[in-house]
Amino acid sequence: MSMLDLDLGWPAYRVIPVQRWQDGRIEAKEDAVAEEAPVALMYNGEPHVVMLATPLDLEDFALGFSLTEHIVSSVQEVETIRVFQRSEGIEVRVRIPEIRCESLEDKGRNMTGRTGCGLCGAATLKQAIRHPSPVVSNVSVTLFDLLKALNALHIHQRINQLTGAVHAAAWITPGQSDILVREDVGRHNALDKLIGCLARQGTDFSRGLVVVTSRASFEMVQKCAMVGIGMLVAISAPTGLAVRLAHESQMTLIGFTRDSSHVIYSHPERMVYP
To answer: In the annotation, is 117 catalytic?
Structure first.
């Protein structure tokens, strides 16, 4: 798979003049605001869906989306990803085997995905609610690993530190110091970017865990299960559908994660306590 990384005219954030009221006074200040751009994903020249996303790491986004939406079954099926700036937004053109592209005609997306939407464009219940195969993962996570991941995540949220407006998804391998983070205004976009980057590096998804700075909604669990990730840790709450899918997929789902507490909703056997 080859990738062409262009210098896009859409920045990840902008600094703008604002008026700030604080302690009874109004002051002229500057503030960093996160950008979101319409990103059109096209397969073999045909439009599939337009998502609102942070215009950063779009090759990772396209690859991760292709895998988690089961448009392709492996990285090897993605031949090229090319990014083009247009006056109205950004086009990401993905080349895949024609037989895979033919199946897209039945998916019925071709719709606009809003920033907070994770199932945008699904035309039928069968397309929206998929049931991935059970996850095969023997990852073992200690309380120390979990707390270390939580602390490291805050440090690596570069855009959020400036804007306070984006989500992050992080990959951690227990016992290792490396952490990989991707950010986006959409929580599911951040996760797709992370999965795309990991897939491009040939990462074994069964050996680590994902931490997200959002709620654990159904599509977040579904995306992780599609690639074989065994543990999803969320800062906020899960939904009922997410918990049921995590049980069905044999995935460990943790929510309300803090320095001093967390709640395990499914398959607690992967957590190891002192």
So the answer is: yes
